[in-house]
Task: inverse folding
């Protein structure tokens, strides 16, 4: 029989564990204390919800700063001269992987052009045609 191992969610990284410990420590009395007149089940649930919200907020901030860092890295990679680009941190690299390296928020729109220039050219040619046929 083949040795099948159970696949679950990956364990928290050291940084994630530290963040969770800090968030729980901030609300230790409510999250870990005994239930009683001062600590109700409702208060405990609200504290856990705040902890989840703070983790979500932390992810948004981490994602935003990683996008900015990766954008600067890409600009340095494309630029000519000036030496090699500054490498990104492992955390930034992991966030970029989670977002997806081909995500438009990281890569931008390729082969884009300024449509106002095309509109100006179209207006000029329209005027030239008008002038040619009216006079």
Result:
């Amino acid at each position: 029989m083949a040795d099948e191992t159970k696949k679950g969610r990956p364990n928290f990284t050291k940084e994630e564990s530290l963040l969770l410990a800090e968030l729980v420590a901030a609300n230790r009395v409510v999250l870990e204390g005994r239930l009683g007149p001062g600590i109700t089940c409702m208060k405990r649930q609200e504290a856990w919800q705040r902890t989840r919200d703070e983790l979500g907020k932390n992810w948004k901030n981490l994602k935003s700063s990683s996008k900015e860092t990766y954008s600067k890295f890409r600009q340095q990679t494309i630029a000519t001269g000036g030496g090699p680009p500054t490498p990104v941190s492992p955390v930034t690299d992991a966030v970029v992987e989670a977002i997806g390296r081909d995500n438009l928020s990281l890569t931008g729109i390729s082969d884009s052009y300024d449509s106002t220039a095309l509109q100006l050219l179209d207006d000029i040619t329209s005027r030239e045609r008008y002038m040619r046929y009216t006079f």
User: Anything to note?
Assistant: Residues 14-108 form one domain.
